[in-house]
Description:
This protein is an alpha/beta fold. It contains 33 helices and 13 strands.
Amino acid sequence: MQLQISLDTPSDDRTALSWSRRERQKWFLSLLCGTCMIYATRTSVPLLIPVVSQEKNWSKSDSGIILSSFFWGYTLTQVASGYISDKIGGQRVLWISALGWSATTFLMPEIIEFFSGDGTSVLLVAAMRMINGAFQGMHFPSMISLISQRLHEAERASFFSLLTSGSALGTLLTGSLGSYLLENYNWMTVFRALGGMSLAWTALLSYHTLPFKEKTASIKSTTGYTLPWSKLLSQPPFWSCVIGHACQNNCFFVLLSWMPTYFHDTFPEVRGWVVNMVPWLSMLPCTFLGKALSEEIIKTGYSVTVTRKTIQTICFVIEIGSLLFLVKVESFQSAILCLALVIGGSGFHNNAIAVNPSDLAPKHSGSVFGLMNTVGAIPEMALVQDYNTDGEDDLQASQWYGVREATLFLVDATQKMFEVEPETKLSHIQKFFKLYKQILRQKLAWSMQDWMGVVLFVKSGMKGYQSMKSEDGYPLHDALTYAMDIFLKIKTVLTKRRIVLITCHTPQLADDEKHRIRSKAASLKDLDIKLYVIGLGNNWVHDQFYKDLEMLSRKTDIDVYRMTSLVDLVQQIKAPSKNIARLSFQVCDGLEIDLVVRTLGRKRRCLQTKSLSKATNQVLSRSTYFKGEEAYRKDSDSDSEEPDLPFVIPEEVNLETKKSIGGMKLRFTQKELHRIKHIHPPAIKIIGVRPIPDDLFRYHIKRKYFVRADYGSTRKDNLLFFGALLNKCATQGRMIVCAFTMRMNTQTNLCYMIPNAELGGFYLSRIAFQGDIGDKSEALLHYDAQNCVTDKQVALWKKAIDRLDVNYHPYMFKSYKLECQIQMVEKYALDKEPGSPPIDIIEQSFLKTYKKTADLVPEFKNMYISKSDGPTKAKRARKNKET
């Protein structure tokens, strides 16, 4: 099968417009820069979509719509722009295209920000992206048409294949410059920088196209142009090029759109510039290698058809093998190597099917290439949009709303950790494993998805339990390196990563070794891994060396650093408090600071009972459905004499206001009442300051939060101002009255901010209104009318209080019901023999308290039993059994 399709007319007056050698060099540099910029702007959205979607709360399906909308516009203008370029000249269409996609890229941040609060923001951004794709769809058809018009047949293939290498340069530009601007500035700067550079190239292109306008206009009037579509579409070589180009585009554009998201989700610890640059470095050498290989094959005597088929086969073999291997890789190095090979295969494609339009129909190359690109871009609409949307609900539930943490314990296995304490008759390492077992039981009982692990670091090899202890050396640097490698291999999205160093002494290390360990601890900060140092034993001293390690890994200043206690850390691992909001604290107009709102803990919960199938042991789900009217008729007895009653829709209930507004009471339906709300932006707005009362926590209204400064804020002196405000309120005994709005379109509550200088923040408690509290006026009036309290009564109560004075903490008392459930689960899961029932700590505490005050009970009875304890209680009416 010959590659040439005879579609050209014998006379070609456009040879008069051929470029000279100087013009050819000038246009090559200009078109190479244009191809570089068009791919830089095209890959900017895939680079920034993970960051923008997280900021704007876009889901994966929303991101897919925005990414795929580009191809909807990309397919609309391919054929038309190629046809017009073949008819009037490609340089004009090329300039219009450049002006369009440059301007839309430059204005993209304004479009996203202006419509971010609108419910249709995703569709509007997708529409802007589609317009950008429509203008970019005009670039390659007009460029290949321009090349076919200005170059001889022998020069077209190599000229166009070298120009397509600009796509790799553009992607490298986005990966280097875009990643740098994203890390040091923001995502808006990336759009504006690339859009501004593209507009500058558009101005340069306009300067280049001016000398050709008169020639093009004079020849356009004397040259007729018709495109024989029927003859073109009936040729098998054309359809083979279309199908091959579609397969290549399918692979290339899916990677182009989703590769940044793939690395962001699978390997979040890797720097952005690495994944956005390294794979694209393979395209340039492969393009030159494909060009040299094509020339060598042609020199040996093979036809152009055989040459193009050979190069394209090499492209597909490399890409197919790399993609199949990519499915099974687990390490970052293997993944980036596979993707580099896939992108390198595209360099061979640029010397094969990509240059076939000039071989098939040189005079109609713009139209042919436009039709090839149109058919090739259609699969990307669905594949880019539907990528990973099947498991999106499960992914979002576990990634954004689930709690998944990773805690790795680095346990010192030196000689001192195995020394037995005489008081407890346990060694430090035995205490740790006992504590670790307790934490693990709690997490398994609550079916938490957290990750936990233990690493024992020693100097020599281990053969058994007693051989773990090492008498010499303290390889903390190697242990931290090993722990980092473990976290790098975890592909699951984690909300928190922590390394807990368990030790009981401060080793004597050389200054060089301490410097190595400090450098390794500082590198944990880049991976968002926090290091905690916990010392066991009463004689352990928190050395400055360990303080430096904690501060270096946590991005913490010395002013806000606090030593981690074992009790607090265990509580954070078992039932962690969470950051639920990052808000601005509005002190006055023009003065704001950044705050973080945290929960105070997690509510205790018992195990849930689920129904299982006796046949398969699968968990049974309960569903509720409503039958239609026909189903009820079928189920009803045909002999029933009851008539069919009409279906009555109850009237909507109107709610009336308690107070008169404007001289009359207003009535609202339930639907209207839900619409009435005050909309405030998410923030904490100060209203005033008042003294802290003695009975502040008398009324418990819902749950309370804790507010601290945002350590990651970029505001200048944010921590300094927050610390000054906290210390001032604590020393003056004042609390802040504020309006608290957690999220957009949610209720705004009046709250108190009670200072706590020891914990470094404020308690946030909702103000109790009269409707939230029971009416105690009658009882208080009764007690006020009684006689005054005697000194004898005061002395008795003081004696009782002294005996009941205990060190109470909620976490000292375990839930008896939960402990019984855990014991039952362990019995069935581990096939253990049933042991003794767990100890009811609450009941034991009650018995101890009763023994302490047993001799005081008769005195209380003699003092108060004959007196009225309060107002008489209202008697409840008995329920009649008949009713």
